[in-house]
Amino acid sequence: MLPPIADQFVAGETAAEAISHARSLEERGIKPMLNVLGSHHDDRETATADAREYQLLIDDLADAGLTGAVSVKPTQIGLDCGVDVFEELLWEVVETAADRERFVWLDMEEHTETETIVDTYETIASEHAGVVGICLQADLHRTPDDLARLADVPGKIRLVKGGAYETPESVAYTDQAAIDLAYRTLLEQAFEMVDDTVAVATHDPEMIDHATTLAGSSAASPALEIQMLMGVRPAAQRELAADYDCWQYVPHGTRWKRWAINRARRNVTLAARSIVENTVPGRLERAVSRLDSPGESIIESGRESGSDSPAGSNSESEADTPPQSVAGPPIESGDGSGLESAGE
Ligand code: FAD
How far apart are CA 153 and CA 123, in angstroms? Predict the structure, then answer.
């Protein structure tokens, strides 16, 4: 069992715990995308073992009657051992998914791998229509071209901001405002061009609003998915699921420490920023306005800012903001998962 806080961001160490979390999500109208934590396996044995785990997970999802998908890192299933190993193992995972009518997402990693991942995706998605999708990162200068190239390929496209990997300025935007602008522009391009599905994978309320507006007025009419990470903005996920096709990225596995610590850190940073930007000025304004209203307590008005109490084991708290302190294991370098690396 995972320690408190970690269990908000990681479903557990075992596939059974991931399936149990997936079931509870589906009961709330949110679809699960299951990930086994790990990446950059440079020996074929480990890469093959992780590919097999994905095949078993797909079987588990299908046997449990869950709609879910898996989301796989290319370097987890062989890309660091050679393109041929990656293609072979990916092919096996995708064939299992095709047999069991489930879906496989390809996560995107370092920019040095993008060309190979896009090439492999294009081939496999053309052979297995409707079974596989790919993630594209808005921070990379090349992404508008990749999006145009893949727009007609029968598969889903997940758009993320990216920015989590070290990339030179010649290859990627490194300034957050530039990444945000690139993301907006890509959303516009995607809703004009993509035939199948645009998956908007962000926690950013402005970008989600922009995407839902575009989806409503798009000539190409691709389907819209909204995707977020486990433990991040859980209340928003539930609200969005009432109106949209909403998916949650659910990591699990024994290599959970770095992921959980980075997610908790990021949530605390954003919670602190939101307190500084909203709550403190709000309380000050209320306090000033109440100087004329004797009898009302400033302390009571503080309660209006909402509860940040931590959720119980493997449950998700109601508030979008996380607990304000992080207890947990010490930071260890490298479980190798790319989504959480530098900048996250
Ligand atoms: P940010 O720019 O981080 O935040 C913008 C705003 O969103 C914030 O100001 C705040 O209002 C809100 N927000 C963000 N986080 C929180 C929070 N924790 N709590 C409350 N509000 C918050 N990257 C890859 O490189 N490859 C992948 O394959 C990949 N797959 C992903 C799959 C999913 C489902 C998701 C959600 C992300 C994925 N990412 C991937 C990561 C992505 O590239 C970004 O690094 C990450 O999502 C952070 O950017 P953001 O769009 O959420 O917004």
Answer: 9
